[in-house]
Amino acid sequence: MTQPSDDAPDNGRFRRTLIRVISVQIVTLLLLGLLQYRYSR
Amino acid sequence: MRAMHPLNWVVVIAWLAYVAIDGLRRARGTKHIEGYFLANRNLPWWAVGLSVMATQLSAVTMIGTTGQGAVDGMRFVQFYFGLPLAMVILGVTIVPFLHGAKVFTAYEFLERRFDAKTRSLTAFLFLLSRGMSCGTILAAPAVVFSAIFGWPIGWCVLLMGVPTVLYTMIGGVQAVTWADVKQMVLIVVAITAMVTVLLVRIPVSPSDALHLAGATGRLRVFDFTFSLKNTYTFWSGLIGGTFLMLSYFGTDQSQVQRYLTARSVDEARSSLLISAYWKIPLQAMVLLIGVLVFVFYQFETPPMLYNPVQERKVREAQPAALATLQSRFDTAVAARLAAARAVSTARKAGDDAATSATAEFRVRDSAATAVRTEALALVEKTTGQQSKDVNYIIPRFVVEQLPIGLAGLFIAGVMAAAMSAIAAELNSLATATVIDFYRRWFRKEASDAHFLTVSKGATAFWGLFAMVVASYAATLGSLIEVVNRFGSFFYGSILGVFILAMIPRARATGAFVGLIVGMLTVAAVNFGAPQVAFLWHNVVGAVTVVVVGMLVSGGRATTPAAASAVQ
């Protein structure tokens, strides 16, 4: 399958995106966890 | 029950008219099927991304999930824990494959890689499951609006169905996407306004409100137990959820078609990342609405039964039993209200006072909940139907408690959610019908004008089909799980075929046999071990297809065609 050259796999970019998405999720989950910890004891 | 103020209806009708008319205006640029189905692959990433979100977010989310928040709390959010990871994985695997292949449908790609029968079977499964789910998605709000406003279900179906079918049929994917953008903005505004109004209307501080919700376990988000039987745990959400989201966003034409309209692979990836970032916070907000409505009703007298139709039936058939329960409920609610106020006062006094007041509140809440459970059992015994009361909590709150204008905004938001989900599905059902069946098997060569006419006819057909199914779907089970369960029955297996498509050694026969064995295995697990939660079906299906597919493909050399399709 032909793909445009600017769409060639770029491991560095993927790694950066993955790190960004996971970081945002960790912050979201920490906030939800804090909500549970603070009010569900 | 209080009727809705006419001004709220003005808001609803104005919104429906605006979306429909603007959608019809988008018909320009759709003279060819590339424009009609793929917007000439020229839509900006942010519009595609909002369309992806609007397609996934149906009225079930606005009505059922918020209600679930009120009854069960926040733990449902775990269902989405696999989504961000799935989006990133798709961005580097399936998205470049499909976008680069310049296909109309995901299934078209499977014929290039494998053969026509694998393409036709997967496209057929899509038409079967999505065709039905389209009806369910339309039925969900129609059933609730019918009960709340006292209209026939058929009218509610037409109110949402007709404008949606019209703009989807005439404007194609352009109309669908730009309508989705507007619908998504309205949904976010409605959700934010609801949370704000609730925080203002609850007569205690937000901290006290959250304390009351937490005392009843409604803020318990995480469940780390590893159990195949429990649908909403951290692990089923993360593992099963990842497989479900990979299947839904990677192989379901209703989503694939969204990002095929993006300008480039990079823009397609970026559109999916909007969901990766925002889906979990948005779902948390949706559930928080339910949790806050629960707290709101600690300080106001709530209805014992929220579904007015079922309440009327029970009142007619068992008036004495209902009156006794109502009296017990009123007493329990009054005691709970006093206990809730005492918690708020005690929290100002100190930790010890707060602890004992909270314990008293828990006891009072359990007592009120127990009476409501008895009332729901009476409903089921009297009507012979599942109560489904949870789906009526939020609509009743909206109609009876929200200020003028805002109730209309929320009802319009529910309709927007239903319409945006259905529009994308109708559009993709028409695409698969025309591209994977009509053009593939019946009429390979014809003018663009011919295919365009057939495509509009196919959209109208599926719209009609959805409205007929919706009108007769009043007796379907829990609004949330029906849709998810039906989809996940085939999803994992179809994902397995797409994974095979990316493995150079996999061959056509292996993919087809793997798909059949995968589906049979999921059916066997579903009927043989019904206690296994449905999220795990996706994992079972995908893994079985890949393992069986590779075994059948054996160690034989890859065909040149397969190798070039993968590279």
Task: Give a description of the structure.
The complex is a heterodimer of chains A (41) and B (567). Helix content of chain A is 71%, strand content 0%. Residues 1-8 of chain A have low confidence and may be disordered. The radius of gyration of chain A is 18 Å and the shape is rod-shaped. The termini of chain A are far apart. By secondary structure, chain A is mainly alpha-helical. Chain B has 567 residues and is mainly alpha-helical. Helices cover 78% and strands 0% of the residues of chain B. Chain B has helices at 6-25, 33-38, 45-56, 59-72, 83-92, 94-100, 106-113, 116-149, 153-201, 206-215, 234-251, 253-260, 265-296, 308-317, 319-349, 351-383, 393-401, 406-442, 448-471, 479-501, 508-528, 535-553, 560-566. Mean pLDDT of chain B is 89; it is low at 477-481 and 559-567.
Task: Tell me the layout of helices and strands.
The complex is a heterodimer of chains A (41) and B (567).
Chain A: H1 11-39
Chain B: H1 6-25, H2 33-38, H3 45-56, H4 59-72, H5 83-92, H6 94-100, H7 106-113, H8 116-149, H9 153-201, H10 206-215, H11 234-251, H12 253-260, H13 265-296, H14 308-317, H15 319-349, H16 351-383, H17 393-401, H18 406-442, H19 448-471, H20 479-501, H21 508-528, H22 535-553, H23 560-566
Helix pairs in contact in B: 1-9, 1-18, 3-9, 3-12, 3-13, 3-18, 4-13, 4-18, 5-11, 5-13, 7-8, 8-9, 8-18, 8-19, 8-20, 9-13, 9-18, 9-19, 10-13, 11-12, 11-20, 11-22, 12-18, 14-15, 14-16, 15-16, 17-18, 18-19, 20-21, 20-22, 21-22
